[in-house]
Amino acid sequence: MPAAQTVRLAEQRADTAAHSITAAFGGRLLGLPGTHLGAVRAPQPLPRGVGPWHYWWQAHYVDVLVDTGLRSRAPVAGADPVALAEQVVRTIRIRNAGRYTNHYFDDMAWLALAVLRLDTLPGPPRGNKPRHQRAREALGRALRSGHTQDLGGGVYWNRARNFKNTPATSPAALYFARTGERERAQELVDWLNATLLDRSTGLYYDGVRQGAENAPPALERAHFTYNQGPVLGALLELGGNANLGRAADLVRAVSRNLVHNDGGTPLLRTHGSGDGGLFTGILCRYLAEAAAAPTLDAGSRRTAGALVTELADRFWKGRAERNNLAVFPSDPRSTADETYPPGTGVELSTQLQAWMVLEAALRVTRLETDPQDT
């Protein structure tokens, strides 16, 4: 197939996901003009703003709208994707009682990364400051407060301050690396390597919990796909021989340990529904960055890209068409009709995951057809 046609097919897949998910899940908060939020499930049984809303899912909704806006300002479900992302950020603050911050440091790190990326795109001017300066300042202060020397370093998971983990520390490290606090970012990466790196697999454990009274800290030894992604992003952002060597090792570790060997082809695992429905989409965002990183060795770049495109192909082949919109499975080894039988509700998290993967695959496909396109 000609390269231009291959890229166009990848664009069409990503466009389908963007339109379908925004149309099915996006809408106003309690009908308020100028607001936009993703419903937790579709069809939505309650008005947006009633019941659970999952702050961090919304942060990733912003991030994937930015993915779309970076490549095209064509309307998504009738609206500019960047304008929609702006509305989601504003609506998160409204829904969150007028604050950008919340109880969970990992949630705040994801939103900080999303608004930082959003500010790279053209949008309504706000004087000489970035459009989301207030959000970035509030979230940055919160993340700094969660970074202490208790348990040797790292960032707490939440304000209970008894558990430090990879899902809070690694996106915080990436945020600090991208905003100029490189020493802090490197300190967090060094803590992850010293405390949560599983030397037997090359993957990162989930976290370390403060022991009761005089008990020693306890490792949470789970290996989740999304934990590896932002660590990879931070390593690439910081650069240097040690970090890039660790990044290459991490790509190989993912390809060995977080896959199904489906017919001899490595296929990334997913983690079901709920919060886990986002996990492997997050990993793919950073695998696509690895595939595009000129500082990473060619073998690692190819491995990272192949993991992304294989998963994207499986999600696309497993989709269902309902009411002229695509629905994607949560597990690439199944179909959407198996994951979500007709007539049942579909979760936002799993659909955002598929959208992230298809956007990541488009980036990889462009790289494969034009290596200069990063």
Main-sheet strand order equals 4-5-6
**Gross morphology:** globular
Q: Classify the helix fraction into a percent range.
A: 40-55%
Distance between the termini: 22 Å
Query: Any idea what the CATH architecture of the domain at 1-143 is?
Result: Alpha/alpha barrel
Topology order in helix (H) and strand (E) letters: HEEEHHHHEHHEEHHEEHHEEHEH
Average of per-residue pLDDT values:
94
Number of strands: 11
- The number of helical runs is 13
CATH topological fold name of the domain at 1-143: Glycosyltransferase
Main beta-sheet strand count, sense and barrel state: 3 strands, antiparallel
Strand residue percentage: 5-15%
Cα radius of gyration in angstroms: 20 Å
- The CATH class of the domain at 1-143 is identified as Mainly Alpha
Quaternary structure state of the chains depicted: single chain
Helix-strand makeup class: mainly alpha
Which runs of at least 5 residues are low in confidence (pLDDT < 50)? none
